Amino acid sequence: MLETQESTVEINLSNLKNNLSFLRSKLNSDTKVMAVVKASAYGSDSVIISNFLEQEKIDYLAVAYCSEGVFLRKSGIKIPILVMHPQIGDFKEIIDFNLEPSIYSFRILNSFFEALKTDSEYPFQIKFNTGLNRLGFSEDEITKLVKSLNGKHPKFIFSHLGASDEKDKGFTNSQIKKFLSISDKFDLLIKKVTKKHLLNTSGILNFPDYQFDMVRSGIGLYGFGNDERFRNSLKPTISLKTVVSQIHEINKGEYVGYNKGYKAVEKSKIATLPIGHADGINRSCGHGKVKVLINDTSVPTIGNICMDMLMVDISNINCKEGDEVIIFDDKNLTAEDLGDLTNTISYEVLTSISNRIKRVIK
Ligand SMILES: *Cc1c(COP(=O)(O)O)cnc(C)c1O
């Protein structure tokens, strides 16, 4: 492994493999796994992750938008890809690139069928709303939906849980109940048993009885289970590292950064790092809210985070220009810890990493 020479996202494929086998250990041997690789595979690199998972015999990939699926196809990914949130202008591309759309409303269904013309076998899935109230057909639309399908059968029907990570299981249980009732009605009307999926990562960990035919995992593959209990089993896949660009010695009373964000209380040593709020290091990480690791010692940010840089106080440590800096990794401070410190969640910390940062496989 070359030493870090610039800001870098490191993708740890053995951690990814560990997480996939941990999740699979919660499942029956015939339950399919869909890996969610939307948003550049949660801020990492959707092609690196998808290629690896394809080799690991993952069954399905899922992206949010059509362009993400087209990008994977153009990069040579062959396995089925679900597009969870297609828009009406997308269906020609979806079909040209052999992507599987999630049909979540009559408006979307109509434009899909228009684009399909005579192909009655083209694969698609149907999304039902069971309480998240975000996307999907409602239970009372089933009769009209089955009529509109006009003999076509979805490969899967699915829904999405809104609070599967919560200790209070009441809301999830009501969603499960609704999903079961919807799928019974749907199958009865369409006269066929339709395959289904419901669980995201926290669903797999907390409600494995409802794994049905497939599960969808995003954050779990990237190493987080939304719960302390899984901290030792799941291993963060994505690390963010940078370097010390320049060191300044400043005197008592001097300022650092925009708007005189920091004032030295004594003679100090300051390091500038080439990563800023445009790279996903939110401004709320400034003023010592977050510490980064240099040569095994954590040092606080000082002043305001700039767009492309941030400064840390290195008065008390030994370090030189060019030394490696760890923002988060799988051991010290994780993306989840960083989220806790800055009032957000691992999902947002990861997906905020800008695409101008280099990605490397570890
Ligand atoms: C993003 C997403 C997932 C993945 O959820 P995780 O909590 O990351 O496992 C699953 N299903 C849908 C519909 C999603 O939008």
| CATH-assigned homologous superfamily of the largest domain | Alanine racemase
How many helical elements?
A: 11
Largest sheet: 9 strands, mixed
Measured on Cα atoms, how large is the radius of gyration?
Answer: 23 Å
CATH architecture identity of the largest domain: Alpha-Beta Barrel
Weakly predicted, low-confidence segments = none
Counting structural domains, the number is 2
Helix percent reads: 25-40%
Strand content: 15-25%
SSE succession: EHEHHEHEHEHEHEHEHEEEEEEEEEEHHE
Q: At the third CATH level, what is the topology name of the largest domain?
A: TIM Barrel
Question: Class by helix and strand content?
Answer: alpha/beta
Bound molecules: pyridoxal-5'-phosphate
CATH class of the largest domain: Alpha Beta
Report what the structure shows.
It contains eleven helices and 19 strands. It has 362 residues and is α/β, with parallel strands linked by helices. It folds into two domains: 31-222, TIM Barrel (Alpha-Beta Barrel), CATH 3.20.20.10; 238-361, Lyase, Ornithine Decarboxylase, Chain A, domain 1 (Beta Barrel), CATH 2.40.37.10. Helix 7 links the parallel strand 6 (125-127) and strand 7. The strands form three sheets. Strands 11-14-17-16-15-18-10-1-19 form a nine-stranded mixed β-sheet, with no helix packed on it. 28% of the residues lie in helices and 21% in strands. The structure holds pyridoxal-5'-phosphate. Pyridoxal-5'-phosphate (PLP) is lined by residues 36, 38, 84, 160, 200-202, 216-220.
